[in-house]
Amino acid sequence: MFRSLHMKLMLIMTLLIVSLMTVVGAFLVNSVSSFYLDQFYTQMQSVFQNDTEFYHDLQNAAPGEENGAEQIGRMLETYTGNLGVDGLARNYYILDGTTGAYLNGSNDQEGSGLEMTHNLALALAGEVGDDSDISASYMDVAIPLTRGDSRYVIYIKDTRQTVQNLTNELVTLILEALAFGLAISVLLSFLLSKTLITPIERLTEGAEEVAGGDFSHKIEVDSKDEIGVLTATFNNMAGQLQNTIQEVENERNKLDTLFLHMTDGVAAFGRRGEIIQSNPAAEEMLGRALPIGGEVDYAALFGEIAPLEQVLEPGQQGYVEGALERGGRSLELLLAPFDKEAQAGVLVVIHDVTERHKTEEMRKEFVANVSHELRTPLTNIRSYAETLVDNAGALPAEMAKNFLNVILGESDRMTHIVQDLLTLSRFDSGRSELNLTAFSFSEAIESMTNANRMEAQRHGHTLELQLEPGLPQITADRERITQVMMNVVSNAIKYTPDGGHIQISAGRMGRNRVWMEVADDGIGIPEADRDRIFERFYRVDKARSRESGGTGLGLSIAKEIVDQHRGELRLVDRTGPGLTIRMELLTEGPEHGKA
Ligand code: ADP
């Protein structure tokens, strides 16, 4: 009940008023009593001490002539005003100085039953009794008096009725003031709560909304006081918070997108090895789904590289490196702990290096092939040249000429290889420009076929040409396309045993494509080697190829040329004997429709 600020405020004000009134009341009552007491003794002093003449008269006026007590009574009667004697609350009494018996006084009735107070006892003993006790229910003063042989005591006693009445009135007044003050405190606390607590309540509501995620809620600022400043600061803070959260959100979205689309695989594991995050690249590289909280865990995936505990405490380097082979892929891994202090888990970054390895392998193979291809003719040249030098003049002229012809042939072969390699390197570096012209596709095929007829005849092959009528013009580098056709047809002639059948056909497909096929019934190539026929230096039968002057580079150059024309060069899928190679080209040339 006393939890609310309103109640607390009311309680404080009530307590304040009650305690204030109590203190004020006590002080007032006490002051009034003290004042009354002081006044009493001042009056007594002024008569019995300061007015020496009166006191002298009291002692000496005609002693013995008449009853002394009556005489003293009469004299005192003239001083009732000075002494404040009213016959009700305050009275004077004249007592016998020896026995204390009542002789005369302003109130006979009370006088006969006077109690023996401390002051009275003192006076009977011959001393002035004027001790005051503020807590007593009366005030009194007793003065001994000696007249001749007689001893009297003048005793003045006040019942304090007057001060009691005054005090009662004061207490009533204070209680009334208290009641009034309490009523005001209730009213004031109500007003205070209205002006103080209402804005605080509004602020609390606003804070709850912000805590619930609604940052757009603005609290009205009504005043310029501290609460007004607090409200404005709160609004400002909510705005800042909204901006910061927005920034964090944007940052997270960016990271999410990056995480989702990055080519490297990333997987995060908790301290117990459970998956807590992974991206599609990681799933693809590892060839399995990586559901969060699923059964697949760190130990199953990467346990063979390093146990989780070792990655969590990776030592100085801060991470562990490893490699894996999965589904024909070569993967390089980097395993690092994150949130080091708390050891929250392990982050694994997976890099697919299959292509790099393949390229490296190919590069090594290529260098080995080049060296080998160049060394063979060089060895031949050297041995023939050595024989010539060693037997200078001793060899028959015919034989020496033969040797020299071999040397020439081998150096031609080397030149051929080097030229082919240069052509390929130009393709690789993108320095090979196409010289595009429009020409008749059928005419180009016809002239290429005619150029090969002699050679075909030499091998007893039948060379058949079958062209669809109305073949269109094409835009291409005529010289290079002719080089491709020549290569394919000469291969067909080379790799078909004498007396074979070679068919060259061409046609149109779709709106903007033409094709040419060269089919032979020769040795063909084994099924396993079909994919490799366009690789550099690839030859099914090295000896046979070399014999016929082949380098193993012809078809790879042909494929590069056709690719550069955005066309296609491939083997036709058919059963043997022999082989069919198909070339497809765009009629409008490689530049057409390119972005
Ligand atoms: P090469 O200069 O050795 O002829 P190519 O690149 O032109 O090199 O051909 C590569 C290899 O492909 C050849 O060595 C040969 O083994 C094979 N090949 C090419 N064309 C044919 C074909 N028509 N029939 C059988 N094998 C072929």
Describe this structure in words.
- This protein has 595 residues and is α+β, with helices and mostly antiparallel strands.
- The chain contains 17 helices and 16 strands.
- It has helices spanning 5-50, 52-60, 68-77, 80-83, 108-111, 118-124, 161-211, 226-261, 280-286, 298-302, 308-312, 354-390, 397-429, 441-458, 478-494, 542-547, 554-564; strands at residues 90-96, 102-105, 139-147, 150-158, 265-270, 275-278, 320-326, 329-338, 345-352, 437-440, 462-467, 473-476, 501-509, 513-520, 568-571, 580-586.
- The mean pLDDT is 87.
- Adenosine-5'-diphosphate binds at residues 487, 491-492, 495, 520, 522-525, 533, 538-541, 545, 550-556, 579.
Map the helices and strands.
Elements: H1 5-50, H2 52-60, H3 68-77, H4 80-83, E1 90-96, E2 102-105, H5 108-111, H6 118-124, E3 139-147, E4 150-158, H7 161-211, H8 226-261, E5 265-270, E6 275-278, H9 280-286, H10 298-302, H11 308-312, E7 320-326, E8 329-338, E9 345-352, H12 354-390, H13 397-429, E10 437-440, H14 441-458, E11 462-467, E12 473-476, H15 478-494, E13 501-509, E14 513-520, H16 542-547, H17 554-564, E15 568-571, E16 580-586
Bound molecules: adenosine-5'-diphosphate.
Shape: rod-shaped
Which regions have little confidence, pLDDT < 50, spanning 5+ residues?
Answer: none
Average pLDDT reading: 87
Oligomer: single chain
- Please state how the strands of the largest beta sheet are arranged side by side: 6-5-9-8-7
